């Protein structure tokens, strides 16, 4: 079954026509095949490999800049969607936060703020941080047993 490649989202033709991929870039010409065979030379292979690595670094940097330019206007749309999601699912938020927003946040002096931060540590989103917190909890449990 024949299909139009510009309508299939996974093809390069679609990505280029929809401005999702760089169309004009000098690094793309390096990836083209050469029709003239060359005689093997160890130095030539070494320099070619270094050049290929450098070209791929440059291309990755340009692609990231292209992506960031393309996604620059997306921030406000994403924020609006996030706000709408929070508004629609307000009932799922913890009651404490809802009560604080209704009553207003009480004023805290520095001592209270430090004790609250110590009581509720902020969980870091990395695996290493989670592992570190588990190790601290285990070491505290071991101290409590003694």
In short:
The chain has 146 residues and is mostly helical. Helices cover 61% and strands 0% of the residues.
Unreliable stretches covering 5 or more consecutive residues = none
Number of helices: 6
Shape: flat
Which percent range fits the helix content? 55-70%
Name the helix and strand elements from N-terminus to C-terminus, one letter apiece: HHHHHH
Give the distance, in angstroms, between the N- and C-terminal Cα atoms: 74 Å
Strand content: under 5%
Radius of gyration: 28 Å
Sheet/helix structural class: mainly alpha
Q: List how many beta strands DSSP finds.
A: 0
Mean pLDDT: 79
Largest sheet: none
Give the topology, please.
Layout (H helix, E strand, L loop, with lengths): L11 H6 L24 H30 L2 H15 L6 H9 L6 H10 L7 H19 L1
How would you describe what is shown here?
- The protein has 146 residues and is mainly α.
- The protein has a domain at 12-33 and 41-71.
- The chain has 6 helices and no strands.
- It has helices at residues 12-17, 42-71, 74-88, 95-103, 110-119, 127-145.
- The longest helix is centred in the middle third of the chain and has 30 residues, at 42-71.
- The chain is flat.
- The N and C termini lie far apart (74 Å).
- The model has no long low-confidence stretch (mean pLDDT 79).
